[in-house]
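Input chain follows. Return structure tokens only.
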Amino acid sequence: MIPLEGVRFDAFAPLDGHVFLSVIGDVLIELRLHDVRKLGHKRTDAARDPFSLTFRGWHGLRLPQGTCGFSCESLGEIEFFITQVGDGARGSEFEAIFT
């Protein structure tokens, strides 16, 4: 498992388009990393520059806000907090923010 405090923008930037898998209940959830974006400069007391990840799942997918475990073939196992931010013709969108 990748420790959350060690996660950096540079680890995710090359993974745009990669699939992240999670099992919630009995359902295999597949989210595709859609956008990796820097959010400005880090605070002087912060361990990293802030960034966000946007994922897309199938249209109509609903997930509770909270911490989920994911696996990615290129990155391995990781847990992070996601929030659903939309659902439209292109699919359901979820965001994770790292500060």
